[in-house]
Amino acid sequence: MPMTRIKRAFQAMITSKGGESAMGEAMIESKAWIHNRVFEIKGQPTFTIREALTMQEISGKTFFAEAIAEVSGGTFVKLPSIEHDCDSILETWNHLYSQLGALSKRFNEAVRDNEIDGKEKADLTAIANEIHKTTQQLLALTFKVYCREA
Predict the structure, then answer these.
(1) Cα(first)–Cα(last) distance of the chain, in Å?
(2) Cα 139–69–93 angle (5° rounding)?
(3) Torsions phi, psi of 58, nearest 5?
(4) Three-class SS of residue 18?
(5) 61-93: per-residue pLDDT in tens?
(6) Is residue 36 a contact partner of residue 46, using CB atoms and an 8 Å limit?
């Protein structure tokens, strides 16, 4: 259920900030306002996108972005923001190869009986999502190191 996943992201951001009171204070709102928005109490709507992004910024976590990506059928990939060098690129390549090995191993186990069950499908999907994240990180690092700024 998409809204349940997004509600869990709100709760995680609030918890990581120190609770409803702390998040309310940071957003210049009350604890009750935060609580009522999370649980849509007293006819209050859930948070607006702007409010959710503010909560994400305050919490320093990407839970909202991850939830939106997940309910949209995707995967959130946080790109590196610090300076890197060629060693970082090599480490990322090595990590990608190990993930591909894990996918290959799990694939072989999953198809051994000529059928992929729900658990096997979830395992394969999780590994593939991690490979996707690592690939995007690899590209970001490569571009940071080797592309001239425009």
Answers:
(1) 43
(2) 25
(3) -65, -45
(4) coil
(5) 999 999 998 899 888 887 665 566 778 889 999
(6) no
Considering only CA atoms, which of 100, 102, 121, 99 is closest in space to residue 110? Answer: 121
Contacts of 46 (CB under 8 A, 6+ apart): 3, 6, 7, 10, 37, 38, 40
Single pTM value for the model: 0.59
Separation CA 60–CA 45 (nearest Å)? 24
Whether 141 and 89 have beta carbons less than 8 Å apart is answered as yes
Q: For residues 48 and 60, what is the distance between their CA atoms, to the nearest angstrom?
A: 18
CB contact at 8 A, 29 and 58? no
Q: pLDDT tens digits, residue range 28-68? A: 888 888 888 888 887 888 888 999 899 999 999 999 999 99
Length of the chain: 150
* The two structure tokens encoding residue 26: 């940071």
* Nearest residue to 47 via CA among 1, 11, 73: 11
